[in-house]
Amino acid sequence: MTEAERAVRDGAAAWAASELPLERVLRMDAASRLEPSLVSSLFSAGLMGIEIPERYGGSEASFMASCLAIEEISKRDASVAVMMDVQNTLVNNVFKKWGSPSVCDFALPLLAQSAVGCFCLSEPGSGSDAFALRTRAEKRPDGTYVIDGGKMWITNAHEAKLFLIFANVDPSKGHRGITCFLAERDAPGLTVGKAEDKLGIRASGTMQLSFDGLRVHESRVVGKVGEGYKIAIGILNEGRVGIAAQMLGIAQGAFDAAVPYTLQRKQFGQPVGEFQGMQHQYAQAAADIEAARALTYAAARLKMEADAAPGADPRHFIRAAAMAKLLASQVAERTTSKAIEWMGGMGFVRESGVEKFFRDSKIGVRVYLGGRGGAAGVTRRRRGVGAPGGAGGGAPAGGRATPPPLFFSHRAVPSPPHANPPPPGRRQYTKAPRTSS
Ligand SMILES: Cc1cc2nc3c(=O)[nH]c(=O)nc-3n(C[C@H](O)[C@H](O)[C@H](O)COP(=O)(O)OP(=O)(O)OC[C@H]3O[C@@H](n4cnc5c(N)ncnc54)[C@H](O)[C@@H]3O)c2cc1C
């Protein structure tokens, strides 16, 4: 770990210790909302632009530094960590890697200083199979794209000022029509809908969006037209490391909260944490957490190596990222569940804060970033996603004729219209694309 990375980690830990006392964490969890002053404080502490170059007002630290900060904040509150995780590892890095100079000049200073960003890919009918998205963008003669459709599950959309929206400019080209657009919150035609009422990371706003004639000028296309799928694949591979860091922090946070309690709590005349049967469990959990940490940090380093050598085979990094997400999520779920048991009845009540870690851990396993994303990356073969020349891992698309499954899709053909019934009580975005200007 470099000195700069250690400084970011320690700064994030100190920030979390002062800004995230348990009482506040529980209050935000109960209210299902992050307190606005907390969001400003994340910016003032430099935690929303960790990798953004200094010339744009960021800290110009490494990807490893972002992961360390995410881990530290997740030890206290994963809802806060997910906000800065999405900002740093998804949104900011999309601009850094694919943004034109003019888009970067506009967006990066805002993202470093005051604007929350969100990453809008998933839709009611396209989750793991993200390339089945149905949001359309149609180009008008004046160079404006008109976007119609909707998104679901969008983290940060409650607070966001900048929206990265994936839409298809030409569905006849399949995934090669997918394009990434930058829109601002107050743009006419962009509506932020209701927040989901969730099991865990409750204070993190997860919103529905709808686009009704949203106009975005061609100068606000991020990357190339028709290459949004490369952005999605590339950035979600990196995003898995951020999720692993979140899960790692959750596991460590639960462990750190529960074990000291058991060393105070006396039964049968001695602290329950001193019984050998308990200590075997602590040893197992501590070893699990260290293993997840080693894999997560290794994945972060491999991603930095892959960035430093453009054109190199990214498969080592993609595989490590998927493994880190998979293992860290499992360790988080297991450790937080155990932590509740170790504390007995106290672990089961809200005021201990430990049951919240357990609820928050569930987002990691098979949900975030493509349900099967973790396992898919671990098991993919040469000819699958991530193979040289394929679309995976941001490698050049080469000449692949078939749509690359983003998350190991089980479908070989695009979904027929209306293939996915809306969940009960849910509106499906089925608006027909506009045909006239
Ligand atoms: C709290 C939260 C925040 C989110 N934030 C964002 C965000 O900011 N931006 C964004 O774009 N999206 C976001 N998402 C969406 C998230 O990425 C999706 O939920 C995820 O891609 C899974 O899609 P799905 O929910 O539609 O599940 P589905 O794709 O319907 O999957 C359902 C089940 O089927 C399994 N499955 C799917 N395909 C396969 C397969 N090929 N083989 C075996 N099993 C399979 C999955 O593992 C899962 O268990 C968020 C979701 C949540 C819950």
Quickly list its features:
four-stranded antiparallel beta sheet, disordered C terminus, 12 helices, binds flavin-adenine dinucleotide, 437 residues, four-stranded mixed beta sheet, alpha+beta, globular, Butyryl-CoA Dehydrogenase, subunit A, domain 2, Butyryl-Coa Dehydrogenase, subunit A, domain 1
Description:
By secondary structure, the protein is an alpha+beta fold. The chain has 3 domains: 3-116, Orthogonal Bundle (Butyryl-Coa Dehydrogenase, subunit A, domain 1); 119-226, Butyryl-CoA Dehydrogenase, subunit A, domain 2 (Beta Barrel), CATH 2.40.110.10; 229-394, Butyryl-CoA Dehydrogenase, subunit A, domain 3 (Up-down Bundle). The protein is built from 12 helices and 10 strands. The protein has helices at 3-19, 22-31, 36-44, 63-74, 78-98, 101-113, 228-264, 276-308, 315-342, 345-348, 354-361, 373-379; strands at residues 117-120, 136-139, 144-155, 162-168, 178-184, 190-195, 206-217, 221-222, 266-267, 270-271. A 4-stranded mixed sheet has the order 1-4-5-8. β2 (136-139) and β3 (144-155) form a beta hairpin. α1 runs parallel beside α4 and α5 (78-98) runs antiparallel to α7. The N and C termini lie far apart (55 Å). Mean pLDDT is 88; it is low at 381-419 and 427-437. Bound molecules: flavin-adenine dinucleotide.
Number of helices: 12
The CATH homology group name of the largest domain? Butyryl-CoA Dehydrogenase, subunit A, domain 3
Tell me the domain tally.
Answer: 3
Which class of the largest domain in CATH terms?
Mainly Alpha
Low-pLDDT parts are: 381-419, 427-437
